[in-house]
Specification:
heterodimer; A: about 500 residues; two-stranded antiparallel ribbon; 20 helices; B: about 475 residues; mainly alpha; two-stranded antiparallel sheet; 19 helices; about 70% helix; NADH dehydrogenase I subunit N protein (chain A); ND/Mrp_TM (chain A); CPA3_Na-H_Antiporter_D (chain A); transmembrane (chain A)
Chain lengths: ~500, ~475
């Protein structure tokens, strides 16, 4: 019995949210739907943890969906890399489900709340699916599931601009999805297979063709659109700004990371590091783009007056750090990427949650309106400060660990200019976080704003869970770094 | 003393800060707890004096932050000296702060005392740190815990001061110190402090070692080497007890202590002497000594003048570290203590003058010496100690620094030190001279008198310290015995 349960765990991670979503529609009411969402995400978090431990002890797991053995059926494949990503996605989902109740009640019309939770579950299902699948086409399908549901989620934002930004995201996201599909199609054309491991074994025979090279290019551009790599990032600030708070927190912390994971999976598992980075100059291209993303994203963040938009631009910069890591194609680089994926998920989740709590009280999040909030919402403001310090990379926070491993990875091969870019971008983070902190603590409450109190307890609990997770990682990073190193050696092969 | 106590000693002020926060409603109880914590901390640290002078190096690793790099505390003589000075003067400052904060009816006093305790925790953490990562964690904790103190008044001026403070300190530490640690780690495979230095067999070129040394020293923004010194004058917007303990003792001494520690335990004095890697930074420090003194002469605001004097004096200690002679380390270590006693006295006096008269410019102090004789006498004693004339303790550190300069063959540095003493005379002795020998300004009321006793007693204690250490410098010499001839 228990054996059978363990064997089915990889499928359950996707099946549970996929079944829970229509259940929400059937329930037709917001409250019970939230409860379903809460249970599902926490169950998946538990499953992800078990899978993580199982892979750590017993090595990669292959699961044949519906009993059809790969490469003909869909294979779910879990290794040291995607169990970490899965743990991040389910963990953030679980914590943000605690947060969601009060936030959704305030921002979404109650007669539509059950639809909101259904869409959120589908989005979660898509992200988990991308993470666990070992099948290239299946990955595309899950990517579309998560994208379509996130268009709907963003459109539910309380401002009218939300519709427009959802539409913008829809156009860009669809282009990205199409590019990915074309790329996968090219690979299918040349290898006759959709299973990633199978494609990887068949590719060397046809590697010298333009079709495969073009396929790689399409996949890189397609996934880059999804994780908003500079210069295809323009959809992201609007989408994050106008989405409901709980959606911003969840998507900012997970969706881009999953898309980055998809690209890493294609580059390292399907094409192989040697093909993507040695034969083609992809490493150099990605390094330049990552530096551009870091500097331009941070620079733009400095000039924002809407805090959510500021955080969105900061995300564009932070994605630069993640891309820089794996673009080095070294073991240290890939593990630095994985470390920062997790840390940035924890940081941005916490920041968006803190900002969402302020929005919950004030219904606005522009710098002028939150002035002096440090005295009225001390717990929320303190959460923002600590998570902000982590973003800057102050020691004893997760962000510091990210900076440390990434600097180690770029300085070891002598890329001092990349180290300089990382440090400059960190200092720009000091400026834009510092601006918000000064407004929170040093400016007087604007005329006419009521004397508001703290946010609801559940929102604070969720926010501070992520904040404390940041500090825990900052003080005791050894397990995370060990997991990231296992992930790196899993995708690079032990030799490199 | 068991090494386990090291962790508790670092955590103790931070834990007590919770109690201080809880007692915010009862100011007398709150300050009593602060004073008791300070005294207990000092006593706890003092218990380690005997084993450490006997050669023990208690060490404690709490857990591994990064693979192979733990949160480690190791006690060695320099750290012990710094911890003793910081915790000892904290107890005096707490009494002073109680008098000052109440005398000036400052707001948010509980926050003030809580942050103060956290800052001391961080300073002790720096003093005890056993590797560069631990040091860096507490270094940033010290920066962040003092930021609310610097911006205590919450007005535009303090916000701007806080910007410069945080901006320079975090920029230098993240921009220079962090990469320097990582480069060290990549070159040597270790960031644990070692009596032999880390670079012995690394085959580092002179240029590379010099660049790394410069990166470390500029990364230590708290040492206030020019041109990264502006945060210290900017920090003077804080209430005076903060300037006295933190920006004359704990924070700035943490900076120069780190410079000494890096020179001894990361690079190694012998390595620096053999390669000359510290030569460039020695001239930077010499320039800072003179440049800051010259700026100090132009400042009419008393606290700003003292701040530039601190910038200048800190570079004495950097000189001691960079001249690559064990006399230099001895002199630098001595100067940590001597300058601490003298400068905290000067700031205590500045705060006492402000509390009693609300005057903060040097040109307004004419004739105040008869209204506040104790304060200005203390100011005179501390000034003489800083200048380095007997019978004040300041002579000893200057003595060893000059000996170190002679030992390492840098005659020009002796000239710099002598010239700096002359400049000190000009800008420091002007103040007691004005107070005692100039006629009072016409708008000075007759009924002015000394500040509250809680202000006057601490400054008398520290001024007495300046004299005592001249006749009895033995405790410091014993602690710094490893570098004594």
């Amino acid at each position: 019995m228990i054996e059978a349960f363990f064997a089915q765990m990889p499928a359950l991670v996707i099946v549970l949210p996929l079944l829970a979503a229509p259940l929400c529609v059937l329930l037709h009411r917001g409250g019970p739907s939230w409860f379903v969402y809460l249970l599902t995400t926490w169950a998946c978090f538990g499953l992800a943890f078990l899978l993580f431990v199982q892979v750590k002890i017993g090595g990669p797991i292959s699961y044949a969906m519906g009993g059809w053995s790969p490469p003909f059926g869909i294979e779910l494949r879990l290794d040291a890399l995607n169990t970490v990503v899965l743990l991040l996605v389910t963990g953030i989902a679980a914590i943000s489900s605690v947060y969601a109740k009060a936030s959704v009640a305030a921002e979404i019309a109650s007669e539509r709340a059950y639809l909101f939770y259904a869409a959120l579950l589908l989005c979660f299902c898509g992200l988990a699916g991308i993470t666990v699948t070992g099948d290239a086409f299946n990955l595309f399908v899950f990517l579309e599931i998560s994208s379509l549901s996130s268009y709907a989620l963003i459109a539910m934002g309380s401002k009218r601009r939300a519709l427009l930004s959802a539409f913008q995201y829809l156009i860009m996201g669809t282009i990205g999805g199409t590019f990915l599909l074309i790329g996968i199609g090219f690979l299918y054309m040349m290898t006759g297979s959709l299973n990633m491991a199978d494609i990887a074994s068949r590719l060397p025979a046809v590697a010298d063709t333009r079709t495969v090279e073009a396929g790689l290019a399409f996949i890189v551009v397609g996934t880059s659109l999804k994780f908003a790599l500079f210069p295809v990032h323009v959809w992201l600030p609007n989408a994050y700004t106008y989405a409901p708070s709980s959606v911003s927190a969840f998507i900012a912390a997970t969706a881009t990371k999953v898309a980055v994971y998809a690209l890493m999976r294609f580059l390292f598992t399907v094409f192989g590091a040697a093909y993507a980075f040695d034969r083609l100059p992809l490493g150099e291209v990605l390094l330049v783009l990552s530096v551009a993303a870091m500097l331009s994203g941070s620079m733009a963040a400095i000039f924002q007056t809407d805090v959510k938009r500021l955080l969105a631009w900061s995300s564009i910069a932070q994605i630069g750090y993640i891309v820089m890591g794996f673009a080095l194609a070294s073991s240290a680089g890939v593990s630095a990427s994985v470390v920062h994926m997790v840390n940035h998920g924890l940081i941005k989740g916490a920041l968006f949650m803190a900002v969402g709590a302020m929005f919950w009280r004030l219904r606005t999040i522009s710098l002028n309106d939150i002035a002096g909030l440090g005295r009225q919402m001390p717990i929320t403001s303190a959460a923002f400060v600590v998570a902000g310090l982590s973003l800057i990379g102050v020691p004893a926070t997760g962000g510091f660990i990210s900076k440390w491993v990434l600097l180690e990875a770029v300085i070891a091969p002598g890329h001092y200019w990349l180290a300089a870019a990382i440090l400059v971008s960190s200092l720009m983070a000091l400026i834009y976080i510092g601006r918000v902190v000064e407004v929170l603590y040093f400016r007087e409450r604007p005329e006419g704003r009521p004397d508001v109190g703290e946010a609801p307890v559940l929102m604070l609990v969720a926010t501070w869970t992520l904040v404390l997770a940041n500090i825990a990682v900052g003080l005791y990073a050894t397990p995370l770094i060990a997991a990231a190193q296992r992930a790196a050696s899993a995708v690079l092969g032990d030799g490199s | 003393m068991s090494a386990h106590w090291l962790g508790w000693l670092v955590a103790f002020p931070a834990l007590m800060s919770l109690l201080v926060a809880a007692c915010g409603r009862w100011p007398n109880l709150r300050e009593s707890i602060s004073v008791a914590t300070a005294v207990a901390l000092f006593a706890g640290i003092a218990l380690f004096v005997e084993p450490v002078t006997a050669g023990a190096r208690p060490s404690l690793t709490l857990f591994e932050v990064l693979p192979g790099v733990g949160l480690t505390f190791t006690l060695e003589p320099l750290g012990l000296l710094f911890a003793l000075v910081a915790s000892g003067l904290w107890s005096v400052t707490t009494i002073y702060a109680a008098g000052y904060m109440r005398g000036n009816e400052e707001h948010a006093q509980t926050r003030f005392f809580v942050c103060f305790a956290l800052a001391i925790s961080a300073a002790i953490g720096i003093a005890f740190s056993g590797n560069l990562l631990t040091l860096f964690i507490f270094y940033e904790m010290l920066t962040l815990s003092t930021y609310p103190l610097v911006t205590h008044h919450g007005d535009v001026e303090s916000r701007n001061g806080g910007r410069v403070y945080l901006g320079i300190l975090l920029t230098t530490s993240i921009g220079f110190f962090l990469p320097a640690i990582i480069i060290t780690y990549l070159i040597t495979g270790s960031i644990t402090f070692d009596e032999a230095g880390l670079f012995g067999e690394a085959g580092l070129s002179v240029l590379g070692a010099g660049a790394l040394y410069a990166l470390f020293l500029y990364g230590t923004g708290k040492a206030a080497l020019m041109p990264f010194h502006r945060w210290l004058p900017a920090a003077m917007v804080a209430p005076t007890p903060v300037s006295a303990l933190l920006h004359a003792v704990a924070v700035v001494k943490a900076g120069v202590f780190i410079v000494l520690k890096l020179s001894v335990y990361v690079f190694g004095v012998q390595f620096l002497a053999d390669t000359g890697a510290s030569e460039l930074m020695m001239w930077v420090a010499a320039f800072t000594v003179l440049g800051a003194s010259l700026i100090a002469m132009t400042r009419d605001n008393l606290k700003a003048r003292l701040a530039y004097s601190t910038v200048s004096q800190l570079s004495y200690i950097v000189l001691g570290a960079t001249m690559a002679s064990s006399f230099g380390i001895l002199g630098g270590g001595m100067h940590i203590a001597m300058h601490a006693f003298a400068k905290i006295t000067l700031f205590f006096c500045a705060g006492a003058i402000y509390t009693a008269t609300h005057r903060k410019y040097v040109s307004e102090l004419d004739g105040l010496g008869y209204a506040m004789p104790i304060t200005f006498t203390a100011f005179f004693i501390a000034s003489v100690s800083l200048i380095g004339i007997p019978p004040m303790g300041g002579i000893w550190s200057k003595w060893y620094l000059m000996e170190g300069a002679a030992d390492s063959g840098h005659t020009a540095i002796i000239m710099v030190l002598a010239l700096s003493s002359l400049l000190n005379i000009v800008y420091l002795l002007e103040i007691p001279t004005r107070a005692f020998f100039h006629n009072p300004r016409p708008d000075t009321p007759r009924n002015w008198h000394e500040a509250p006793w809680a202000c006057v007693i601490p400054l008398s204690i520290t001024a007495t310290g300046c004299i005592v250490w001249f006749f009895y410098p033995l405790p410091f010499l014993k602690l710094l015995a490893p570098w004594a001839p």
